[in-house]
Predict the structure.
Amino acid sequence: MAITLDFSGKVVVVIGGTSGINRGIAELFATHGAKVAVASRKQEKVDDTVTALRQLGADAMGFVADVRELEVLEAGLQTVHDRFGDFDVVVSGAAGNFPALANDLSGNAFKSVIDIDLRGTFHVMKTVYPLLRKPGASVINISAPQAFIPMKAQAHVCAAKAGVDMITRTLALEWGATGVRVNSVVPGPIDGTEGMARLAPDEKIRSMVARSVPLGRLGTPADVGNACLFLASELGSFVSGTILPVDGGWSQNSCGNMSEYLGNAAARTPGS
């Protein structure tokens, strides 16, 4: 059975949408007819992504903002609302990560991940709410397996992403009466992304990770994007407060040997 998802006329905003998984999500919505806005910290990345989205046929725009800076984020999102109107879909995907054992993790390093992942998510949620279409909007937070699977050298990320998922679940309760749905998507190991390059920097490690996925392969940005299309569509109209892994079963395998690998890697390079 063929299913066609048409987002023509819909307004999609992807925070962090100029690279990796988030850019893949933005491009997928563009190919399905949406008007797409992206945001990131670098103007050149915004310009490059907007150009690519327009080449896919989308009405696209972008702005520069750091999710840690609430007023800058508010101003940027207002420019999108002024041009496109109420938001139908918001994907919040800004994130930061690096391996560091807790004993080697400085207070500033811990704070930087909390500020980007957790406070940044709160800033996006707080800012977009008055700009959402009600009823009908779908908000999707990009989480990580560290939200529910402890890993060595990831105390900062585990704490931040667990908080992101609790924001998701709480806002599903608070915003449900207005017809707004809030969910988290949890990508597994996604090939061709900056995060994968940092955590699995050579072919031997990439192969190890792929073997640890029950489906036997690394994911793609399109795999994650397809889950976002589902959640944002009428097919997902009764799904809210869900934490959805898109990982080929990786989290069922406790992410293979990733905890030991990250712990060993961090032990060799202390002082983060």
